[in-house]
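Here is one chain, start to finish.
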Amino acid sequence: MLSGWVRRPTAPARLVQRASIVLAYADESSVAGVARRLGVSAPTVTKWRDRFLAQRLDGLDDAPRPGQPRKLTDEQVETLISRTLEGVPPSGDTHWSTRSMAADQGLNQTQVSRIWRAFGLKPHTVDSWKLSKDPAFVDKVRDLVGLYMSPPENALVLAVDEKSQVQALDRTAPILPMMPSTPARATHDYVRHGTTTVFAAMDILSGAVIARNYRRHRSSEFLRFLTEVDAVTPKDLELHLVLDNYATHKTPAVKAWLLKHPRVVLHFTPTSASWLNLVERWFAELTRRKLQRSTHRSVIELERDIVAWTQNWNTNPKPFVWTKTADQILETLAGYCQRINESRH
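Its structure:
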């Protein structure tokens, strides 16, 4: 039996170790030798040797833990989980709380909270999602993921987008600095001093970013940005630009410009799928690390700050590496669609 535990690949590691100790002790009868051989402590060898001699195989199991016996039965836990997943509060609330569930099941809040944590249930939380209805969704996903994971040779792949309505905000009172046990504090109200739009093109391999600020967000500004990107990138390389479906990216003026610049190829994300554009991750970093907590008294000051932050980023750029294959993405979305269909029945 002990040898079978040691050889069985699915046996719990703790039982394998304990059985190995007993078998090794039977070979050499030396606590120190067994400890050296198995890489465990001498008290561990003594403990499981004595437990085996006293109780045989039963002695190698875990001893009952001290403390009060379990109060909730499996049936009570199962009922609570089913009620959480399938029932609705009788009060007409949209979701359960620990109080309402405890009252419904005749338990206390602590018990409900522990069970929810154990099973990863959060009735108060709702994640949002949106499925693309683009008829060419599959083809576009494969095209973009192919660019990210296997970029073409002699080409630059740039993820391009605009972050519009970036506000120059100034707090109505100075921000109080962080102190021991106290976070930095800022007023809820602020004064607006205008807006700007950040146009950005991120090299997916290096993470370097070309960024420009424009006061308006029209096709003419987009053309100006395309012209600048064309001017600052090596002329001997093709440019593959990943874009969303914003109307300013598809105007006749843009199409005419593309005819004059054949090295520039546009790749559009599916509709309602901006998460496929890697530059969105850079915009998230810009927001979290610079815009969210800074103050600016003018648009000029805001734009100057964004330029400085971008230049600092480019001194040590960090690319965002795409890891999911197109097949994995499509399988995940297929699972969502199946769950949606099942929830309607």
